[in-house]
Specification:
The structure holds two protein chains of two kinds. By secondary structure, chain A is mostly beta strands. Chain A is built from no helices and eleven strands. Classes of the chains: A mainly beta, B mainly beta.
Chain lengths: ~110, ~110
């Protein structure tokens, strides 16, 4: 049973395209996150949602738009992809907003050419 | 603001060597402290945590003690294995306002040779 799953695992696309990454958790958690990890392993939080409500929106270009159709799903849509968007994107969840024990998905490696 | 500083890697050790990865923090209030581990090609997973001063977190032979006087949370293991090769992240809980999030260190890569 996969706790936090992401699709796709790999995504290769050209500059200017629009792409989406999907995330699902079956842990019954209330809070979900998107992180970006660069090639040096630096981890940066992008967004978090609690019960479908946007809680954290870090300084991310507005080309990135998260959507949470229900509390088990958090998707990330990226418009007009740029070279600098190449990274590994991780989805994570935690039981509630004040719980810092986060469960991570396997990551989506996005390569923009 | 709150921050976490980890020792730079990569750290390379032989199997059965003693491991220390240093982590210090700056924080207001009383944060919780965490170590997460990322094995190659995988997402991060919680390794251990401590929620108050003098607490010791432990898991899989790893330990870390929350030291308020030195604002540190160093990760230690007495005898590392090849399977411990991974990137280790120190983090603290940032409880400011509604932005409940983890503040992450830069990660320390560990390579254990047989």
């Amino acid at each position: 049973d996969t706790a936090v799953s992401q699709t796709p695992k790999y995504l290769v696309t050209q500059m200017g395209n629009d792409k989406s990454i999907k995330c699902e958790q079956n842990l019954g958690h209330d809070t979900m996150y998107w992180y970006k990890q660069d090639s040096k392993k630096f981890l940066k939080i992008m967004f978090s949602y609690n019960n479908k409500e946007l809680i954290i929106n870090e300084t991310v270009p507005n080309r990135f738009s998260p959507k949470s159709p229900d509390k088990a799903h958090l998707n990330l849509h990226i418009n007009s992809l740029e070279l600098g968007d190449s990274a590994v994107y991780f989805c994570a969840s935690s039981q509630y907003i004040g719980s810092y024990e986060q469960y991570f998905g396997p990551g989506t490696r996005l390569t923009v050419t | 603001g709150n921050s976490v500083t980890q020792m730079e890697g990569p750290v390379t050790l032989s199997e059965e060597a003693f491991l220390t990865i240093n982590c210090t923090y700056t924080a207001t209030g009383y944060p919780s402290l965490f170590w997460y581990v990322q094995y190659p090609g995988e997402g991060l997973q919680l390794l251990l945590k401590a929620t108050k001063a003098d607490d010791k977190g432990s898991n899989k032979g790893f330990e870390a003690t929350y030291r308020k006087e030195t604002t540190s949370f160093h990760l230690e293991k007495g005898s590392v294995q090849v399977s411990d090769s991974a990137v280790y992240f120190c983090a603290l809980s940032d409880k400011g306002g509604n932005n409940r999030k983890l503040i992450w260190g830069l990660g320390t890569s560990l390579a254990v040779n047989p």
